[in-house]
Each structure stands twice: as structure tokens, then as C-alpha cells.
Amino acid sequence: MALLSMQNISKTFPGVKALDRVNLDVQKGEIHAVVGENGAGKSTLMKILSGVYAHGDYDGDILFDDKPARFAGISDSEKQGIIIIHQELALVPQLSIAENIFLGNECASNGVIDWRRTNRRTDELLAKVGLVEAPTTKVDNIGVGKQQLVEIAKALSKDVKLLILDEPTAALQENDSRKLLDLMLELKAQGVTCIIISHKLNEVRYVADSVTVIRDGMTVSKLDAKAGLSENEIVRDMVGRDMTHRFPDHKRTPGKMLLEVEDWNVWHPEHAGRQVIRDASFNVRAGEVVGIAGLMGSGRTELAMSIFGRSYGRNISGAVRLNGKPVDVSTVDRAIAAGISYVTEDRKALGLVLDETIRFNTTLANLDGVSSGSVLNRNEETRVAERYRKALAIRTPSVFQKTVNLSGGNQQKVVLAKWLFTAPEVLILDEPTRGIDVGAKYEIYSIINDLAAEGKGVVMISSEMPELLGMCDRIYVMNEGALVGELAVGDASQERIMSLIVNE
Amino acid sequence: MEVAESDTKAAPDVRTKGIGAYISAHLRQYGLLFALIAVMFFFQVVTDGTLLRAVNVTNLLLQNSYIIIMALGMLVVIVSGNIDLSVGSVMGFIGALAAVLIVELDQPVILTILICLVAGGLIGAAQGYWVAYWKIPSFIVTLAGMLVFRGLSLLLLEGQSVGPFPKEFQLIATGFVPDIFPAGLGEWLADLLGARKVNVLALATGIAAAALVVWIGLRQRAQNKAYGIEDEPKSFFIARTTIIAAALIFVMYKLSLFRGLPNVLITMGVLTVIYAFITETTTVGRRIYALGGNQKAAKLSGIKTERLTFLAFANMGVLAAAAGLVFAARLNTATPKAGFALELDVIAAVFIGGASMSGGVGTIIGAVVGAFLMGVLNNGMSIMGIGIDYQQMIKGLVLLAAVIFDVYNKNKQG
Ligand SMILES: Nc1ncnc2c1ncn2[C@@H]1O[C@H](COP(=O)(O)OP(=O)(O)OP(=O)(O)O)[C@@H](O)[C@H]1O
Ligand SMILES: [Mg+2]
Questions:
Q1: What is the sign, positive or negative, of the torsion defined by CA atoms of B321, B325, B330, B331?
Q2: Among the four given CATH numbers 3.10.180.10, 3.40.50.720, 3.40.190.10, 3.40.50.300, the one describing domain A253-339+424-504
Q3: Closest CA to A297 of A147, A493, A489
Q4: Residue identifier of the C-alpha nearest atom 17 of ligand 1
Q5: I want to staple A385 with a disulfide (CB 3.0 to 4.6 A). Which of A112, A277, A319, A362 is the partner?
Q6: ipTM computed for the complex
Q7: Separation of alpha carbons A119 and A107, rounded Å
Q8: What would the pLDDT profile of A256-273 be if each residue is shown by its tens digit?
Q9: Ligand 1 in contact with A457 (CB < 6 A)?
Q10: Which fold would CATH assign to domain A2-239?
């Protein structure tokens, strides 16, 4: 029996037809996956379903529980039991777990919060999602994986019939992802219907009962996953062609030593006495792609950012040599000038000026490249932005689109464009394919290969081990702030990497 | 796998969308211009034409010159994500300093002006230092500055008014540029236009400025076309450019009927053009917008965010000093109350002009038009004899309306 039926949904933004007569049918009690390329319209569809875009802002009909649904806002859809967990987490970091869960929905009488009841109910909910934390713990102090579980607990605190998860595992480690997916299966057993959006197709296969594929704002197929579905079948419908390889072919012959980092030590910026990076030494040769594997919080981002203009930490010590010569990387502009660039993992907070255009963001780290004597040549800027829009296949009507209006994956590409335009000798990529669709991943891998072929060095930090194994020449393994191992890709496997982490 | 031509599925051309969508996306700019015209029209009617009399137009410009000069600096500060509450006090303090130097210590005018501008820069730098390098919220630092410099002016003037200033100092604010054209031409024009006299320089400047506006507009439009940037509908472009050009000529014509081009207008015009250029087309300007838009991302892009913040305040200090000199010269005396609460007018002008409290958004032209809007309101209401009580209330409501309009617009765009 259908719980939800969205019929002929269309939605237009200025200059963009985001959805074009999309149909989505979800059966009661199933887990339904919505997949599609970046910018296909998945998040937009879910925002319509949850009332973020109110009735009247779109065309088409929604039937929920066989009744027409016309939501004027999120509170309307929540009343009906439709709860959405957005692509970007929406917790308040300064508040506790309990406060977050009952935000706007407090257990209170006459406006006075009943803390005992709040904490007791929070305990119950946390038990349901399998999270062992005190209700009073600040959300700031727990990892992303646990925050994701808090979001779900928050959803369960309301009377949820349909739970929508927009890329819930994008920022999660594999075992955290697995935990979350198992929780979904458990909720399904309790009768909760789920919609999940994900670019990780193995996860889709693992949890989904049926799959709707959206391409360019249109429904292209509805697949039954109960009988088993191969990733290739999904991919074919997603990108509209067969895709046999996930990684572009590459032959690399690493040349001379390019970047050497030696005895790198970093202390925590706030907690003096807490060492974040310990005696880390690594190197990258020209034309080489080097991976850094490790768990969340193992210090990979901190290592990269502390090298890149001391953007993280204090009391930093150690040596950085480029082409055998010591270089000054004490500020970001010096690091860029020296030829080192860093693509952040956090595109919204650290990567983009969201209220500005693609063009603005593309040239931001290399304004000298589009100006003469401090005067910007805006035509040249446009040309540059256009060039990267084409090269990276950024899906947008024009480079004058504000980046806030781009889909998550396309935002990621803009950040990448910004750093490619600085023409670095060494490019450090931090989770470069987070939230990116299979086709676009392939494009990004191709760009990495091109950089290596030009004799540049690439450092790739990633939590997706298949990606490291498929792209790198060497892989360093990081654990608790130290580089605990180094493997040539020929000797590396997921198991060996994991065992290096665990053995420490 | 082959990476297929992803270009083939590019989204529809933006230019195909309707005029309605264009208006709604640019409502703010048109709204501001329209509001200014409407307000002027209103006061022109209710004051029986007094508003646009030559004397009053000249007065209007002189009265608002110091607000506009400070609004330029304030825009930069606000775009960078900060605020400066001290400008009114700093302005008053610099006026007092000038008075003490010239009137009491007999220093030459040029030297005094130099000292004052440097002092303003130092004051701005001192405040900027705490904001930029110590990360003290600008609201607090400049609130402190506001009190400190108000007190210092009192101290410096010993609670008295000091004046008058020598003629050459007064010229800063009350002087007019002499007509360089032969007197015969002016007389001939005056006959032709049925006026008593015409200052040809002022009129010529107006025509030249209008021509410049048209030329820049056309060039910009041609470029936008070439790059497929969403284009203003032709009728809009023509209407907007005609209105602006006509307004320029009209204002200058009015000035030419009175005493010609005020010195301050030249200062103001030149400064406005310079700051518009800096904010829109230089790397420094671009970096300030990035800083205000997302400080962390700006920093990670190699932008020296601290230094920029520091410079924004130092710059504000210099402009506040310039405004202080103009103000003192205009009143021909320095009083301890000079510039009192003026920071609020300046800040209001910038927000009415479309700047955002959270930084990263705003334009010089917007701020200047915003200042004029406030100026016309002040002037019009004064002519009508509306009391200061109502004036304050109306100005407050206008500010609120402008910002509500902004927020509403932003929400609507989703
Ligand atoms: N507020 C907006 N204004 C203009 N365009 C928008 C807006 N929101 C989304 N879009 C556009 O609509 C299209 C669909 O976006 P959406 O976020 O739904 O994609 P998605 O399928 O969720 O992609 P991803 O996998 O990258 O998250 C994109 O082209 C995007 O640029
Ligand atoms: Mg999305």
C-alpha cells in the first residue's frame, strides 16, 4: 500500500528547472532510496515533500496516507509525521543533546522546562538509536556520526511515520555508516517508512527495498531492490550510460622529491598541553598521488591545515621542504605562493563565500591571476570561471549563480575549481569526493590524474578506502595524530590499513 | 568509462526568463531609486516647489556632504562585517582639534588639515587594532571610542564653542568653484534659459557626468551581453539610465542657477567615484567582500583578514576626520556637541542603501543614495516645519522598512 505518492512535481528556480514532472511512490513500511547525479533535484524534491517549499511554490500533487497534502511549512508536514533530516546537520552545537532533541518541542509546563522528564525521555530515545552519551553532553563534543544519531533521535521524539534522510552518511566513517543503516533497518521493522538519499550505492543496495532514479529533474526509473540489484544497474540509469570502471586508468612514474614534511608537531589551539600531531613525517614526489587514511578525528585534517599556513593549531614545529629547499608556509598566502594548496573538507564553512557567485569564488584564492596592478579584469574572471565550469562539469545556468543555490556536489566542484586555479605544485585534497555522484567522482579522479601527469604532487585525505586504493601510489595511515604506517598501493588493502590503525 | 559531454545538458538559458523575474531579482536597486524619486516628488509638491529651488538644492548637498563622506567609509566597515559607532564623536573631536590648532594656536590651515586627517587615521587605526588583531567585537571597541572621543572633545574645547575660522578654512565647506568659462557664455545661456544667471561650469559638469553614466552603462551592457550575464531588459536599461542622467543634469542645472559647484560637492563626487571603483573593481575591494561574506573561507584563501579589517577602520578614521573638517568649516565654529548621534544617520544610510548587518553585502552607490534619501527626508520635513520629534520617528520607520524589505526579498528568493 502506498504511503506517499508524489505526482508530476515540477519546480523552477530563476533560470533552473530543478524538477520536471517527477513521480515518487513510497510503500508503507519500506526503505526507499532516491538516487541521482549532483543537482538532479533530489534535495529539492525532499524539501517540497517536507514543506520547506510550501504548497503553491511548485506544481503537482502530493498524496500522503491517501489524502492530498498541502503543506504551508515544515511544521505542517511534521504534524503529519513527515520528518526530514537535511543534508547539512541542523543541530545547535552549543546546546546539549537533550536540548537539541527537544528544541521547539520542549517538555515543559507553563513555559518552565521539566528537566527530569526531558532527560529521561532523551535517555529512552538515545537507547533506541543505540547512542551511549549523557543527555547533558554538548553536541559540539561528539563526532559527526553521533550527531547524526542525535538527529534521528530528534526525529523519533516526534511521532514519525515517514523519515527522510538526505545523504546521512556522507560525512560518516564506514562503521558509523553501517550503524546508521542498521538502525534504519530496525526502524523499518518497527513500521517506520524511510526515504534515503545517498551517493554511496553499496549502502543503497544494503538497505533499500526500492530505488527511484532521478536525472536532470526527471524520474528515469523505479527499480525493485528486494530481488537484488547491482550497482551498475543503478549507475546506468543515473548517468544514462554504462560505466564499467570507477577509476580512470592511470600509469604513473613518480619523479623527483617534491614535498617533504619532517617531524611535524602541532598542539591544540585551545587546550594547551594537548598534542594533536606527533612527529609526523611524509613526502610526495612529482607526479605522485599519496593518500592519507585514518579514522575521523585521527588528525588528518589538522595535519593538512597546520601545514597550510598554520591554519590550525599552535606551537607548530617541524620542517617543510619543497623541491629540496625549505619553504615558508607560515601564512596561507605564503603557502599558496610557495605552491601548496589545500581543498577543505568543509565546503560551506571554510570553502565558499555562499552569498557570492561561482565566478567570485573561483578566482578568490588567486585574484592576482585575474588582475593587473590590483585592478580586476572581470572579463578574464568570467573566462576563467567558464573554463572551470566546463572542465569540472559544474551544473549551473551560469557562473553568475550564487553558490548557495548550487547542489552540494556542485558546490564541492566550485571549491575544487578555486584551488586548481592557484596552479599548485602540491595539491592537498581533504575528502574531495564527499557528497559527489559517481560520474562526477570519475571526473575528479581524472583531474587528479591529469595533475599527476603534469608532474604535480597530490595528497589525498579520504575516508573512503576504495578510493584511496584505486587512486593512490602510496598510502600513509594515520592514527591519533601520528603517521603509523606507509604502504605502497600494491601492498595495501582495506584489511591491512585497518590492522595498522587497530594495532597502534 | 568515458566522461560524456556534460555540457549538453546545461540548464536553460537565463535570458529567456521574463521581465517579472528580473524585477523581483533586482527589486532592491530599483526600489531604492524609486523611493528617492517618490520622496523628492512628494516633498516638491507639499513644499510648493521649495525643495528643488536652486538655493535649497545647494543647501541639501552641503548639509549632507559630511554624512555621505562618512557613509563611504562606513560601507567598507559594514561590508567587512563590522560596525563603527564612534564616527560621530571622532568627527566632533577632529573639528575641535582643528579649532584649537587654528584659532588658539594660530597654525596654518593646510598644516591643520594634514594633522587632522592623520589624527583621524590614527584614531581609526587604534580602534581597528583591537578589532582586527585582538578580535574584540567592533561594537564594543567603537562604543568605547564613541564615549572617549566625545569626552576628549569636551576636554579640548573646555566645554566652550571655539571659532570663528579664517576665510580660507571656511572655503572647504562653503566655497564654490569659480566658473572657468567666459562670462559671455553664461549670460547667453541665462538669456536662453530665462534665468537670472547660469554657472556654465556646473552645467557642463552635469552634462559630462551624465554622458559618463550613459557611456559606462552602455559599455557594461555590451560586456554583459558578450558574456551572457542575465541582462536587464532594454526598456529598463533605457529608463534607468535616462532617469539617472536627467537627474544629474537637473541637479547641476539647479546648482548653476545659484552659485555653481560647491567645493564639497567636488570632494564628495571624487571620493564617491574612487570608493566605488575600489570596492567594485580592485582586488582589495573584492577581498573585503570575501572577508565579510565568510571570514574563515577568506582566510583560507590567503586573504590577510586582520590587516584588511585594520585598514577598513583606519580608512574610516580618515574619512571621519575629513567629515569633521567639513562640518566645522560649515558651522564656522567647533562645538562640543558637534557630530552628536550622527553615527546613527551614517549607519542608517548604509543600511537603507542595501548593506547587510552580517557583512559581505552592500554598495557605495547604494550607501550614497541611502544618505541622500535620509537627507531629502530631513530637509523636506524641516521645510514643512515638522518637529524634530516626528522627524526622528519617520526616519526610524524608513530605516526599518528598508531592512524589512531586504529580508523579505531575501527570503522570497529562497
Ligand atoms: N534556491 C535555489 N535557487 C536556485 N537554484 C537552486 C536552488 N536550490 C537548488 N537549485 C538548483 O536546483 C537543482 C537541483 O538541486 P538539488 O539540491 O535538489 O540537487 P541534488 O540532487 O540534491 O544534488 P546533490 O547530490 O549534489 O546534493 C540544482 O541545479 C541547483 O543548482
Ligand atoms: Mg542534495
A1: positive
A2: 3.40.50.300
A3: A147
A4: A407
A5: A362
A6: 0.86
A7: 10
A8: 999 999 999 999 988 888
A9: no
A10: Rossmann fold (3.40.50)
